TrEMBL record:
Cofactor(s) needed by this chain: heme
Domain of life of the source: Eukaryota
Residues making up the signal peptide according to the UniProt record: none
Name of the protein this chain belongs to: Cytochrome P450
GO MF term (any one): monooxygenase activity
Similarity field: Belongs to the cytochrome P450 family.
Species of provenance: Talaromyces pinophilus (Penicillium pinophilum)
Sites where the protein binds heme: 822
Length: 975
């Protein structure tokens, strides 16, 4: 090959933008001789002939294969290029983390933040052109440029060219440009900002902040992103203002827009850029160009906290200057729903490029009009050989479904606007709350990332009870213990239902998960069946299983010396699996464990408030599956989890010995309950219990690392009560108040379920002079309640002593409220007490020391922000307290009987005859008009604080029982 070749145009990058730029150039100037330079391994990047596969779109910085495996159990085989990133897929566009969970921050406009999954190029002859051999590709990189219109490649070839088009993607592959050329071309540069640009940037910041005040005060980011290079300074994201000012039209830079419409953007950029290079396009003066550049960069910095600081970033919103001048600019960014009803009197980025070129896009007045009417002009087809009959059928069907979608949206919008006005006419006011917008309410202000933190701040502003609106739904947040107890405990009869959950409950669970069931007979039956195995008395009989699993946990901690997460998780899962199904999980990585973990992970995703549009607009669930992609996701997930639950159910029935399944299926209350219902009733105990117990134990380890002063008094108590000759047991609990105080403080300090599972009231109510409409979603903010300094002084400090004082605070709310209180709380508490006591008895917990002799830091606020919160990964040192204790643990393990048939997992149910009584054990409770309240035998917990004593009849009729010896006890599925 010759070392000196002459071309008319050189294109850097054979990916999306490069190939489309070449196609466009050849269309406008067919005789042009083009050279494409690319260092990759195939023409077209991930869309090349060698690596293309169905549904392939574009490279993504997020690993979609693991997410797809989690959600749908799909196996995705990917061809990975040298950039070490993976392509996304059609499914991934819907499922990717940023689309489902929004962003990893607590900023309001999260619903717009997403990675990108993109469609194949829409140019009809796209592949034909580039696989026909008409383009020469050098698999190399540019070494440098010279002033004599030469491009020097690293393979030794020098190319003469009139134009250079750089399509290099997001990476800064502009090494050939020195600092002088970078500044001249408007590329990122290490050069300091000039005073001119500093002034323009400051003015632009003010413009954006005034248009969108919410962007003026962004949240703290997890990682502060700094860049040594200044931003791109390109007009229309394509050309240098300095070069344009002097008439130099030798280069343009596409690829500066990364969006869900990349094919369309690439085509318009190529058309605009080529027209500019050929002198067929006029541009404004330099001052106007630079003002628009500054505004765009200010917008992206504020809008996209990560990428926007480095690039002129854009996902959905490609704003032109005229967009900022629009009076509706702030509203169009609130939610896609609003854009459905607003007139399209603003220019998107693509439309701006088209307008510059004198092209009429024929865009309709709004998106609804776009769906209902065909565009003027010639119809196009992506399938040239499709016959008219087929096209007509497809178009007719599509128009029919499109009309259905439009009708559903219009009906939903009308309902959202009119319903609140009618419901509130002539009634007391709703609780105060942040100002809401029409239709969407407070959606634009809500945080999907740790919302309980935001709600705690709003409690300080609006009081113990405040209101939020999300579409048609009224959400009442309870920010104090008093408000939560007053409503959820005292009025549990009307506050014990659940809000409708279309995705998690109806679609994924098929109405079978008790935790999401409304307050109806189905739920009462499920609770009654769970109560068979979860009463206080029954829970005490499981101590043998817990003691055995705890012994294995201790051995693992002493042997691994710091790798505690896996051991804690194995303990929690194995304990509950043994009780529920009669089988231990001795390794912690069994297929059963993986399946349960997967189901829990999915459920947390599906149940997250504000994630799925169908939860906000349930009528959309009537759409056909191809217009409702969440349905297919739900079907696949339900198929997987129901298969697992039924498998475990049948295996438990066949195993010898006692287990939850056998205990529950034979009671009278189980008559008429299907096996599938029974499978979910038992499975939810494992799903919820294993995850929450693990997280609580991890929180204890974190607290012990952060607050080492709690260890000495705890170990002193253990020495006094236990000594060194035996291990602690649950039976020691009454004699160890400090260990119990550590458990309570662990549950208070960082609650595992920070905002509880939402309740719903079945009747309209009034509280503190405010109206609580029937069907309101009630959110008790456990996080905020537990960090209230008025009840728990110095709340961020881990202080077990607070529970031992004479003026000890009221009990924590970690297990929930009212009839929806956690049914497995007694098992959970025993697990926490036993393992906290044993770990502190056998081990020392301290900081991890790195190779340089420094303590590895841990973050006391480092918790996940999902429905169930757990500490983010952290490191500690766990070492044996003494060789003597380690030997005792080993001896106890060797002597322990590990057969579930022998260690006590047998039915401990009551054998005495029970009969209703009218009187129980009573005690006074100050502060109530009638201060006589029933007390649960054994635990001392109050049955009810209802001043009218309605528990003696109606709801609680017959719940007080007496055994043959006359000792009263209490049973109710809500406790």
């Amino acid at each position: 090959m010759a070392t000196n070749e002459t071309y008319d145009v050189v294109i850097i990058g054979a990916g999306w933008y490069g190939l489309i730029a070449a196609t466009t150039y050849l269309r406008l100037a067919p005789e042009t001789k083009i050279l494409i330079v690319d260092k990759g391994h195939s023409i077209g990047g991930v869309c090349s002939e060698e690596s293309i596969y169905p549904n392939l779109f574009v490279k993504s910085v997020m690993d979609c294969s693991s997410i797809l495996s989690i959600l749908c159990r799909l196996k995705v085989f990917l061809r990975i290029g040298t950039s070490r990133v993976k392509p996304s897929t059609t499914t991934y566009t819907i499922l990717q983390k940023t689309m489902i969970l929004s962003v990893e921050s607590d900023w309001a406009p999260k619903i717009f933040w997403a990675n990108s999954g993109l469609g194949l190029a829409s140019v009809p002859d796209f592949w034909k052109t580039f696989h026909a051999g008409d383009v020469k590709v050098h698999r190399t990189e540019i070494a440098s440029y010279s002033d004599t219109d030469k491009v020097h490649l690293k393979n030794g070839v020098t190319v003469g060219t009139d134009y250079v088009i750089l399509c290099t993607g997001w990476s800064d592959a502009l090494e050939p440009f020195n600092e002088r050329l970078r500044v001249q071309c408007g590329l990122p540069s290490k050069a300091d900002f000039t005073e001119k640009w500093k002034k323009l940037d400051a003015e632009a910041d003010d413009i954006v902040s005034k248009k969108l005040p919410i962007l003026a005060n962004p949240p703290d980011t997890f990682v502060e992103t700094t860049s040594q290079r200044r931003p791109w300074r390109l007009y229309r994201r394509l050309i240098s203002p300095k070069m344009a000012a002097v008439g130099d039209r030798s280069i343009f830079f596409p690829v500066q827009i990364h969006s869900v419409y990349t094919p369309l953007v690439a085509e318009m950029q190529a058309l605009w850029g080529v027209a500019y290079l050929l002198g067929q396009l006029e541009v404004p003066n330099q001052d106007d160009i630079e003002k628009e550049i500054a505004v765009w960069n200010a917008w992206t910095r504020k809008r996209y906290l990560e990428q926007g600081r480095k690039h002129a970033y854009s996902i959905y919103d490609y704003l032109a200057v005229s967009f900022f001048r629009s009076s509706i600019f702030p509203l169009t960014l609130i939610a896609p729903v609003i854009s459905m009803v607003l007139p399209a009197n603003t220019d998107t980025y693509v439309d701006t490029l088209a307008r510059d070129l004198g092209i009429n896009t024929s865009r309709k007045a709004n998106p609804i009009a776009e769906m209902k009417a065909e565009l003027a002009g010639e119809k196009s087809s992506t399938n040239g050989h499709a016959n008219g009959k087929t096209n007509g059928a497809v178009n007719g069907k599509t128009n029919s479904y499109t009309g259905l979608a439009v009708t559903l949206i219009l009906v939903s919008v009308a309902y959202l606007v009119i319903s609140p006005i009618i419901d509130g006419w002539g009634k007391p006011p709703l609780p105060p709350g942040p100002p809401a917008l029409p239709i969407i309410g407070n959606v634009h202000q809500m945080s999907l990332s740790a919302p309980w933190k935001q709600h705690m701040e709003w409690t300080k502003q609006y009081g113990p009870i405040f209101r939020l609106k999300a579409g048609k739904d009224t959400m009442i947040v309870l920010g104090t213990m008093q408000a939560a107890r007053d409503l959820l405990d005292k009025k549990s009869k009307i506050y014990s239902s659940r809000p409708r959950s279309v995705m998690a409950f109806e679609n994924v669970s098929k109405g079978l998960r008790p935790v999401l069931m409304p307050d109806n007979e189905q739920w009462k039956t499920a609770r009654r069946l769970q109560g068979v195995v979860l009463t206080y008395k029954m829970s005490q009989s499981y101590r043998g299983v817990q003691a055995l699993e705890s012994l294995q946990l201790l051995r693992g901690l002493l042997q691994n010396k710091g790798k505690f997460q896996k051991e804690l998780h194995r303990y929690s899962t194995s304990t509950l699996f043994a009780l529920a199904y009669g089988q231990r999980m001795t390794r912690g990585d069994e297929e059963e464990v993986k399946a349960i973990d997967l189901i829990v992970e999915r459920f947390a995703l599906f149940g997250r408030v504000g994630t799925w549009i169908v939860d906000a607009i349930p009528i959309l669930n009537y759409l056909p599956t191809f217009l409702a992609p969440w349905k297919k996701i739900a079907e696949e997930c339900h198929a997987f989890e129901s298969k697992m639950h039924m498998k475990h159910l049948h295996q438990a029935m066949e195993r010898p010995g006692w287990n939850f399944v056998k205990a529950v299926k034979d009671v009278k209350a189980a008559e008429g309950v299907s096996q599938k219902e029974l499978a979910y009733i038992v499975a939810i105990l494992l799903e919820a219990g294993a995850e929450t117990t693990t997280n609580a134990l991890e929180t204890f380890v974190l607290a012990a690392r952060l607050f080492p002063r709690i260890i000495s008094p705890a170990q002193a108590e253990l020495e006094s009560v236990i000594g060194t000759s035996r291990l602690p047991t649950v039976d020691d609990s009454p004699n160890m108040p400090y260990i119990n105080a550590i458990v309570k403080e662990t549950l208070r300090w960082r609650p595992v379920v920070p905002e509880s599972v939402p309740h719903l009231n079945t009747e309209e109510d009034e509280y503190m002079g405010y109206r609580i409409p029937k069907g309101s979603i009630i959110l008790p903010n456990v996080w905020g309640i537990h960090l209230n300094p008025d009840i728990y002084p110095d709340p961020n400090n881990f202080l077990p002593e607070r529970w031992l004082a004479k003026d000890a605070p009221p009990e924590h709310a970690a297990f929930g409220f009212g009839r929806r209180i956690c049914t497995g709380q007694h098992i959970a508490y025993n697990s926490l007490f036993l393992n906290v006591a044993r770990i502190l008895w056998a081990c020392n917990i301290g900081p991890k020391i790195d190779a340089d002799g420094r303590e590895v830091p841990v973050d006391e606020w480092g918790f996940s922000d999902g429905f169930i919160s757990r500490p983010l990964p952290f490191e500690v040192s766990i070492t044996p307290r003494s060789e003597e204790r380690t030997k005792l643990v080993e001896k106890a393990w060797e002597e322990a009987d590990k057969d579930l048939l022998i260690i006590g997992a047998t039915s401990p149910g009551p054998t005495a005859m029970f009969g209703p009584i009218r009187h129980g054990i009573f005690r006074s409770e100050p502060g109530f008009p009638i201060n006589i309240n029933a007390e649960i035998v054994h635990s001392g917990d109050l049955i009810t604080i209802d001043p009218d004593q309605k528990w003696l009849h109606n709801d609680f009729s017959g719940m007080l029982k007496t055994d043959s010896g006359g000792t009263p006890s209490f049973y109710h599925e809500g406790y």
